[in-house]
Amino acid sequence: MKCPFCGEEDTRVIDSRPADEGNSIRRRRQCDQCSKRFTTYERVEAIPLVVIKKDLTREPYDRTKIERGVFRSCHKRPVSVSKMNALVDKVELEVFNLEAKEVKSSYIGELVMNLLEELDAVAYVRFASIYREFTDVSTFMEEIKKILDK
């Protein structure tokens, strides 16, 4: 594993332990050159998944895009990082359990919205406003009214 600090190719594993409820392995490594430590995660590579976007273009599945959307939606909200990561894990598990080679981005977006709605109403509205591309205040207010009526 290449050192992210100095670029040295020789690093060694100091500690390994299960992470993400046994779905990955967390490894602490130390660079032999600069002696700095860093963490890596090893996960099983699943079926290569392609996401079909709204404009029908296709791109490889990228977990970080979901993480980024969830983290932005929960910014300055009383939602812990562990809960946000658990939400992303649930979405990912659901998507990969389909065992499909392609999945629509709309399916992923709806999964995220459903889980965010349970987690935090404000984060849900934030995500929905971007995902559903609210064009005016009335559309935004309709979405808020749906939440208040529940």
Task: List its traits.
22% strand; three-stranded antiparallel sheet; 150 residues; 45% helix; alpha+beta; 5 helices; three-stranded mixed sheet
Description:
The chain has 150 residues and is an alpha+beta fold. Helices cover 45% and strands 22% of the residues. The chain contains five helices and six strands, in the order βββββααβααα. It has a three-stranded antiparallel sheet, with no helix packed on it. It has a three-stranded mixed sheet with strand order 5-4-6. Helix 2 runs antiparallel to helix 3. The radius of gyration is 19 Å and the shape is elongated. The model has no long low-confidence stretch (mean pLDDT 90).
Write the layout of secondary structure elements.
Layout: E1 11-19, E2 24-31, E3 37-43, E4 50-52, E5 58-60, H1 63-73, H2 81-97, E6 102-104, H3 105-119, H4 121-131, H5 137-149
Parallel strand pairs: 4-6
Antiparallel strand pairs: 1-2, 2-3, 4-5
Helix pairs in contact: 1-2, 1-4, 2-3, 3-4, 4-5
Indicate the mean pLDDT: 90
Label the overall shape. Answer: elongated
Order of strands side by side in the largest beta sheet?
1-2-3
**Biggest β-sheet description:** 3 strands, antiparallel
Q: Tally the helices: what do you get?
A: 5
Measured as a percent range, the helix fraction is 40-55%
Order of helices and strands: EEEEEHHEHHH
Radius of gyration: 19 Å
Low-confidence stretches: none
Instruction: Quickly give the structural class.
Output: alpha+beta
Cα end-to-end separation: 50 Å
